[in-house]
Amino acid sequence: DQQVKQNSPSLSVQEGRISILNCDYTNSMFDYFLWYKKYPAEGPTFLISISSIKDKNEDGRFTVFLNKSAKHLSLHIVPSQPGDSAVYFCAASRRPGTASKLTFGTGTRLQVTL
Amino acid sequence: GAVVSQHPSRVICKSGTSVKIECRSLDFQATTMFWYRQFPKQSLMLMATSNEGSKATYEQGVEKDKFLINHASLTLSTLTVTSAHPEDSSFYICSAREFGGNYGYTFGSGTRLTVV
Question: Contact A105/B43, CB-based, under 8 Å?
Answer without folding.
Answer: yes
